[in-house]
Design goal:
215 residues, 73% helix, 0% strand, homodimer, Tetracycline Repressor, domain 2
Chain lengths: 215, 215
């Protein structure tokens, strides 16, 4: 992934950064409320209180703006999940290390604006296949790669016995995320969180995972 | 769930059933190709070669037709998955019984027209929340209920040791379905199937599941 913003590598001045943020915020609200087709560059310029010329200077088209919005949101979320797997302390065990990471990850994945973006992008797979691919790469796949790295370290520390860390990470990810994400996609954002005891849910997934891969 | 077709309980004559099928087939093709908003009752009447009066006699509105289409497809699929859990033979083991069911289920879930409907319904959660709920109930939830029943029988037969069959069924479902369905939603129908060795994928999920719940 080496896609750039419409401004490429040129640094932005502070006022320009603020306008860019205002545009992205207004665009997000509009796209999530009305869907892609119903939103126009005119309405985004109005909502974000910037001149149309400024809007087009930052984002050359509605499509470019939409792409950048989804990209920046998914990247921000995936950095929140796990920028760097936590170091393993001498008295750590696999359950406590993995539990901490998975609870954070579940909270991040279930953030309402991310779920709404995910629904929007899934519905737009046919016209925007590259965008959906980015959500795949920066979403679940990035979380799974980070988990695989952590699982590899736990294996090195002899706290797990894992023949294939990528496979184990994929299995653990979906043990935890599968049901809440499916609920969120089809029942709405609240249904994924209300009544979900994150800690208990993660613990139950880890019961299964550690039965297979624990030492 | 006790929603009826627009014709309620009145039985249809054979010619009427054929017209109804033609309408549903044309509607499915149109909705999947162009999205909900772009399709009209006029275009569906034309594509299915029925009179508009006949179309409205079967389905009172575009919305009713869309609801019935998704409902009939998801029901047909969920009946294909597992109408009745298979009986357990004296020489069966849990891996072979569950493996058979899960391979069938994966093939059904990954049928392209169902994946496309799923994407469409997810993108339309805001205007059609009841429809998405039906896809949830008749989709993953029905598969999970059937799996739970089967897991309960395997527990009764002392081929598994499962304290909570519903939880175990949910975990097994997402161990198997999570990654392929996520790929299908974001990378397209082919990405979910191409390169997927269904039997090996199910076996790897069962390795984890049986480590936790096997005897």
């Amino acid at each position: 992934m080496s896609m750039k913003t419409s401004r490429g590598e040129r640094p932005l001045r502070p006022s320009s950064i603020a306008k860019r943020e205002a545009i992205l915020a207004a665009a997000q609200e509009a796209f999530l409320a009305h869907g892609y087709d119903a939103v126009t560059m005119d309405s985004i310029a109005r909502d974000s209180e910037v001149a149309k010329q400024t809007l087009y200077g930052h984002f050359g088209s509605k499509e470019a703006l939409f792409l950048e919005l989804v990209r920046s949101q998914t990247r921000a979320a995936s950095e929140r999940v796990m920028n760097e797997p936590p170091p393993i302390a001498p008295d750590d065990d696999a359950r406590s290390v993995l539990g901490r990471v998975l609870r954070d990850q579940l909270d991040t994945v279930l953030a309402p604006h991310l779920l709404a973006l995910r629904r929007l992008v899934i519905g737009l797979l046919a016209p925007f296949p590259d965008l959906a691919r980015e959500l795949y790469e920066h979403g679940a796949q990035r979380a799974i790669r980070s988990l695989a790295e952590l699982i590899g370290r736990l294996d090195d520390a002899e706290l797990l016995a894992v023949p294939d860390a990528d496979r184990a990470a994929t299995q653990l990810n979906w043990l935890v995320m599968g049901e809440p994400v499916n609920r969120a996609m089809l029942l709405g954002d609240d249904a994924a969180r209300i009544g979900l005891d994150t800690a208990a849910h993660v613990d139950e997934a880890l019961d299964v995972f550690l039965a297979a891969y624990g030492r």
